[in-house]
C-alpha cells in the first residue's frame, strides 16, 4: 500500500482556495447550512457556524432544536436560525419540518455537529440524503453514526461528501473495534473512503485524509491543545465554508485540517499550549488563511 503524502505548504500552494471577486455579495461568497445541536450541547452549532463565517462563507444558517434556537440567534447575530420542532426527547424532530427548502438555498450542508441522539440523527440523515444529491456535504459527529445504511447513496453522489470521524466514529462506520483500527489507521481510513465513496478525515494527533480514489495524506502539525470539546465542530465549519466557496472535496478537507491545526498553533503561542478554548481558534482563522493564500 502506498505511503501517505505529508500535507505541506507545497501541496496547499499548488491547490489554492477559490477567492471571491471583490464585487461578490454575501450569497456569492458561499451559503452554509449547519444542521445539528441538541439540548445537552446547544452551543456546538455556534462553533461550526462561526468557523464557517471565519473561513470566508458569506451567509450561514443554523437549523437546530427549537428550545435553543432563539438563544443561539441572540448570541450570534451574524446567522439566521431555523428552529426545528422538538420531539419528546428534546432533540430535532426529523419528520415535522421543511429542511429540504433550506438545503435548496445552500451551497454546503454540514450535518451532525453537537448532535447526541443517534435515533434523531438517523432520521434526519435518512431524510436529507434524498435532498442533498447535488449539494456539497460535510458529515460529522452523530450524523456519522447514522450513515452506515446509506453507503450506496453516498457512493453515487457526483461530488464526494466529506466525513470527519474521530477514532470512535470511524470504528462505528466500519463496524470494527477502535483498538484494531489503531493498529493500521491508514488502511482503515482508505477502506472507509472507498466504502462510502467519500473523502474521509480521520482526526487525531496525526490526522489522515483519504479520497475514494485512494489518495492518502497525513498531517501532524497541530498540538494536544486541540484535543478539547468543540474543536471538531470548528473543523467541520471550516470544511463546509471552503466547499461552499467552491473548493473540491479533497481540497476542502485538506485545507480545513491545515487551517484548524495552524489556528491551534497560534492559540498555543498566544494563550498557552494547554487550556485554550475551541472558540478561541475562531479568531485566528482569517489571518492563517490569508497567510497561506
Ligand atoms: N460533550 C461535550 O462536552 C461537548 C460536545 N460537543 C460536541 O458534541 C458532539 C459529541 O461529542 P461528545 O464529546 O459528546 O462525544 P464523543 O466523545 O465524540 O463520542 C462520540 C462516540 O464516539 C465514541 N468514542 C469517542 N472516542 C473514542 C475512542 N477513543 N475510542 C472508542 N470510541 C470512542 C464514544 O464512545 P463512548 O466514549 O461513549 O464509549 C461515542 O460513542 C461533538 O460534535 C462534539 O464536538 C461540543 O460541541 C461541546 C462540548
Ligand atoms: N493530540 C492531538 N494533537 C493534535 N490534534 C489533535 C489531538 N487530539 C485531537 N486533535 C484534533 O482536535 C480535533 C478534535 O475533534 P473531535 O474529536 O471531533 O472533538 P470534539 O468532538 O470535541 O469536537 C480534531 O481535529 C483532531 O485532529
From TrEMBL:
UniProt binding sites for AMP: 203-207, 232
Keyword tags: ATP-binding, Kinase, Lyase, NAD, NADP, Nucleotide-binding, Transferase
UniProt region (Disordered), positions on chain: 1-28
Keyword Transferase: yes
One record GO biological process: metabolite repair
Entries under Gene3D superfamilies matching the protein: 3.40.1190.20
CDD domains, sorted: YXKO-related
Catalysed transformations (reactions): (6S)-NADHX + ADP = AMP + phosphate + NADH + H(+); (6S)-NADPHX + ADP = AMP + phosphate + NADPH + H(+)
One Pfam assignment: Carb_kinase
GO molecular function: ADP-dependent NAD(P)H-hydrate dehydratase activity; ATP binding; kinase activity; NAD(P)HX epimerase activity
Protein residues bound to (6S)-NADPHX: 166, 233
Sequence ranges assigned to domain YjeF C-terminal in this UniProt record: 9-292
Cofactor(s) needed by this chain: Mg(2+)
The protein's Enzyme Commission number: 4.2.1.136
Family in the record: Belongs to the NnrD/CARKD family.
Subunit structure: Homotetramer.
Job of this protein: Catalyzes the dehydration of the S-form of NAD(P)HX at the expense of ADP, which is converted to AMP. Together with NAD(P)HX epimerase, which catalyzes the epimerization of the S- and R-forms, the enzyme allows the repair of both epimers of NAD(P)HX, a damaged form of NAD(P)H that is a result of enzymatic or heat-dependent hydration.
NCBIfam families, per the entry: yjeF_cterm
Protein name: ADP-dependent (S)-NAD(P)H-hydrate dehydratase
Source species of the chain: Novosphingobium subterraneum
